[in-house]
Amino acid sequence: xxxxxxxxxxxxxxxxxxxxxxxxxxxxxxxxxxxxxxxxxxxxxxxxxxxxxxxxxxxxxxxxxxxxxxxxxxxxxxxxxxxxxxxxxxxxxxxxxxxxxxxxxxxxxxxxxxxxxxxxxxxxxxxxxxxxxxxxxxxxxxxxxxxxxxxxxxxxxxxxxxxxxxxxxxxxxxxxxxxxxxxxxxxxxxxxxxxxxxxxxxxxxxxxxxxxxxxxxxxxxxxxxxxxxxxxxxxxxxxxxxxxxxxxxxxxxxxxxxxxxxxxxxxxxxxxxxxxxxxxxxxxxxxxxxxxxxxxxxxxxxxxxxxxxxxxxxxxxxxxxxxxxxxxx
Length: 329
Prior knowledge:
The chain has about 325 residues and is of the alpha/beta class. The protein is built from ten helices and 14 strands. The strands form two sheets. The chain has a ten-stranded mixed β-sheet, sandwiched between helices. Strand 4, helix 2 and strand 5 form a beta-alpha-beta unit. The radius of gyration is 19 Å and the shape is globular.
């Protein structure tokens, strides 16, 4: 068992009850959304201690999210309630062939106004991992500098930094600023987890090999690239040599919703690090949780416990024979 700290914006999420464009929908089901809260939930379900940093509005959505976090056994000591700004929410359609239509209502939210002063004394000395994404830092200059400040403090206290860029171009003022700031934060990471398309945008490179080298040259120890249904590619520096590992993904009969798959992947890496799994085992776990995620409509409702995860891996390995390629040079 280890401890993870993560920071982000959880939102109430209304998922359409019927297929079609959001403008035509009249009924919704209520869930919780947010990349970092997905990672927190998945990590807690696999038996690890998680502390979640956020600001919520003093409103029914904020109460709903807070109760949800408590129910999932996530430490909410650093969850602050803001009486002046609301909790963010989003709408998501149903039955989309590819990625669903999602509309956000988060500008001016409590998390958008996250107070640096309230968070300056956070102690990372007992945390194994600080998990960060590029979403909160995209909201405004204040949230960017807050995330940067907390990462620097975590590094000082020898906490491992896992950074998933989780690009949301619509949240940034420009693509140029997004690339600049994501890469600025990436330099602090011990483990960097871009999708292959994200890596291409951020580095200007095309192949997974060149993307990995671009970030290893920055001083990052391990770059793990999500390659969609193909699986994952990892490149690390080990004893002045480069270790490359590729792990095939798990076959999914029917993709329901791709949102949250990358967060599930991050759960596999974060928990694998705390359990001291090998890179091969971490990639297998990460690919498995990502596959479970795309098989369900909600962002976190079906994140697995240990038994569910172990059963899924064993069943699929028997059917598919999951392959890996390892080299060290």
